[in-house]
Amino acid sequence: MSVDQATVRRVAHLSRIAVTEDEVAHLQGELNAILAFVDELGEVDTTGVEPMTSVIPMTLPLRADVVNDGFYPERVLANAPAAEDGFFAVPKVVE
Fold first, then answer.
1. Residue 25: predicted pLDDT
2. What CA–CA distances, in Å, run from 40 to 31, 33, 36?
3. Whole-number Cα distances in Å, 47 to 35, 41, 54
4. Which is higher by pLDDT, 73 or 27?
5. Residue 56 pLDDT > 90, yes or no?
6. How far from 79 is each of 64, 82, 83, 84, CA to CA, in Å?
7. pTM of the model
8. Which of 7, 22, 54, 62 could staple 3 via S-S, CB 3.0–4.6 A?
9. For the CA atoms of the chain, what is the radius of gyration?
């Protein structure tokens, strides 16, 4: 599959990309190279290959989907510039 210059202009128009006449030939070459690579990928035998979502095997850590304070109020407030009675203390900004 390859594209002609009219197709390049149409794709650029549909994509709302401003393309000058000087750029059409260059973009035609790039699009044809991409399509050739996609055709090449289509020739790869993937029989027996399981679909994957990542290139490395990994499992996501899961926790219960509940709202809580993390059960560590002292650790959370340890990095606060100021704390008072278990809450963040901030300076008054409105008089």
1. 95
2. 14, 10, 6
3. 22, 13, 18
4. 27
5. no
6. 26, 9, 9, 13
7. 0.51
8. 7
9. 28
**Residue/partner pairs of 80-87 with CB below 8 Å, 24 or more apart:** none
What is the amino acid identity at position 8?
V
Token pair 């973009």: residue: 27
Reading the block at residue 36, the tokens are 């050739």
Alpha helices in 1-46 (DSSP H): 5-14, 21-42
Token couple for 4:
């002609």
Q: Is the pLDDT of residue 47 over 90?
A: yes
Percent with pLDDT over 90 in the chain: 56
Dihedral sign (CA 37, 43, 49, 50) = positive
Contact 48, 63 (CB under 8 A): no
